[in-house]
């Protein structure tokens, strides 16, 4: 049975909300792509931790796959925040520390101007392995589905077994920035090209929560964008269009979209702004989740 058909059957039958304390609900969590804006997933994960809610399955695209894999490995949201701060964002408070952060980030991104992508991604994967201590889907505590794009077939690929590191690297492989990944006989690139918020690949769930971190379009400007900015923004426009079309066909039970404005795909240094932009969405999600989990305290 396809996931789309399964979802339609569930919609027709209707999902029941718990009517007594302690009822078990199988929650599926979809974490969308969006580059640096994907850091907004971290406060969402921290909220789930505080509420004591554990997903039965996670689906992720691009940075949603990266953070989703960390969470599925058993890491807490707060631990992921610390890992991101120490490795990607930095904590510079002086010019000297800023230079160290820049040098560390350059080494982390593994730049290669002569290859098929500006970033090889090998250093990112080494950090990723050190963070989760496994390279197999089967070792994760929570089942994970990673969405990538099959470049030559021009179609979605959902990976849920085998080599986790390759799958995640492929899912975050924005063409031109990261080197495409050879996965078996396929060449895989960023999953955002086919499914930016992969709630529709989740099945066998009572409740599906989708988190869209694509943000809102930048303010109008008469100034032409530079080459890199134009390419990245075009990819964002395409992803937003895909999500809008998907939502007309099928919707998750809970759809959360943090109000992230004017933050670019690569602006990881603006992490605190991204976290702040997610506060209202966390309150919204907590309120909606209490409809399904009435036993949870009002102030998790």
Short description:
By secondary structure, the protein is α/β, with parallel strands linked by helices. The chain is built from ten helices and eight strands. Helix 8 links the parallel strand 7 (207-211) and strand 8.
Description:
The chain has 300 residues and is an alpha/beta fold. The protein has a single domain, classed as Cytosolic phospholipase A2 catalytic domain, CATH 3.40.1090. Helices cover 40% and strands 13% of the residues. It is built from 10 helices and 8 strands. The protein has helices at 3-13, 41-51, 63-72, 77-89, 95-109, 122-132, 164-171, 227-249, 271-277, 279-289, and strands at residues 27-31, 57-61, 144-150, 155-159, 181-183, 186-190, 207-211, 254-256. Strands 1, 2, 3, 4, 5, 6, 7 and 8 form an 8-stranded mixed sheet that branches. The chain is globular. Mean pLDDT is 85; it is low at 1-6 and 9-22.
């Amino acid at each position: 049975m396809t996931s789309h058909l399964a979802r339609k059957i569930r919609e027709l039958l209707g999902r029941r909300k718990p009517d007594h304390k302690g009822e078990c609900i199988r929650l599926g969590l979809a974490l969308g792509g969006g580059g640096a804006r994907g850091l907004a997933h971290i406060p969402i994960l921290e909220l789930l931790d505080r509420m004591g809610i554990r997903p039965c399955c996670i689906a992720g695209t691009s940075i949603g796959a990266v953070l989703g894999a960390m969470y599925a490995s058993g890491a807490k949201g707060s631990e992921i925040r610390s890992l991101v701060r120490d490795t990607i964002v930095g904590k510079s408070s002086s010019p000297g520390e800023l230079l160290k952060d820049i040098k560390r980030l350059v080494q982390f991104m593994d730049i290669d101007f002569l290859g098929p992508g500006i970033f090889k991604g090998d250093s990112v994967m080494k950090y990723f392995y050190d963070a989760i201590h496994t390279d197999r889907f089967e070792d994760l505590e929570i089942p994970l589905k990673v969405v990538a794009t099959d470049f030559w077939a021009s179609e979605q690929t959902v990976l849920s077994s085998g080599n986790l590191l390759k799958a995640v690297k492929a899912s975050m492989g924005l063409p031109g920035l990261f080197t495409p990944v050879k996965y078996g006989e396929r060449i895989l690139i960023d999953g955002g090209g086919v499914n930016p918020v992969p709630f529709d690949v989740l099945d066998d769930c009572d409740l599906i929560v989708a988190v869209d971190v694509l943000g809102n379009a930048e303010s109008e400007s008469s100034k032409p964008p530079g080459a890199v900015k134009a390419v990245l923004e075009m990819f964002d426009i395409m992803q937003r269009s895909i999500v809008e079309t998907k939502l007309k066909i099928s919707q998750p039970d809970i759809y959360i979209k943090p109000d992230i404005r004017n933050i670019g795909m690569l602006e990881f240094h603006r992490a605190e702004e991204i976290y702040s932009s997610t506060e209202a969405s966390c309150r919204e999600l907590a309120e909606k989740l209490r409809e399904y989990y009435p036993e949870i305290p009002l102030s998790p």
